[in-house]
Amino acid sequence: MIVLADRYMYTAFARDVVRGVSPEWIRKLYSFAIAPDMAFYFKVPIEVAISRLLGGTRGQLKYYEAGMDMNLNQDMTESFRIFQSNILAQYEKIVDECQLITMDATKDIEAQQNEMRRLVGEALKDYKPRRGTHGRRTVFWRRFDVPKSE
């Protein structure tokens, strides 16, 4: 099975810890999640992120992505800088723990995509779908114990 997803439990590991959630608790909460074979962390400096967000089609920061609800700073851009810098620091802490593949997100999109395609291609070079499953829809259920209420 191949799944491509934008964001996964790692977002919570970084963002929720910055918002004050216990790292142990958040990992336990997501303990049901299947560890992927590959996970990418697109690392971009704060100033580059701010420039892209303010200079792009959106042209503004969002309230929660700037951490405005945390009263870090009255200026939205400065609050964003503080909040997102803290999130990046958490990502740096989990890169080794979660075996994230760090990508240089300052490169242009085509270069990033080519590098990611190369890495995924290497990982899938020996992949062969099980016989008779190609094109067939299957449902995957992961079972886990749910305590019965008393």
Describe the structure.
With 150 residues, this protein is mostly helical. It has one domain: P-loop containing nucleotide triphosphate hydrolases (Rossmann fold, 3-Layer(aba) Sandwich), CATH 3.40.50. It is 43% helix and 5% strand. It has 5 helices and 2 strands. It has a two-stranded parallel sheet. Helix 1 packs across helix 4. The longest helix is centred in the middle third of the chain and has 22 residues. The protein is globular, with a radius of gyration of 19 Å. The N and C termini lie far apart (38 Å). The mean pLDDT is 88.
Structural key phrases:
single chain, 150 residues, mainly alpha, Rossmann fold, two-stranded parallel sheet, 5 helices, 2 strands, 43% helix, 5% strand
In short:
This protein is mainly alpha-helical.
Secondary structure layout:
Elements: H1 9-18, H2 23-29, E1 40-43, H3 46-55, H4 76-97, E2 101-104, H5 109-124
Parallel strand pairs: 1-2
Helix pairs in contact: 1-4
Please give the count of helices: 5
The major pleated sheet works out as:
2 strands, parallel
**Structural class by sheet pairing and helices:** mainly alpha
Radius of gyration: 19 Å
Q: What is the string of SSEs from the N terminus onward?
A: HHEHHEH
Number of domains: 1
Got a strand count?
Answer: 2
The percentage helix is: 40-55%
The CATH class assignment is Alpha Beta
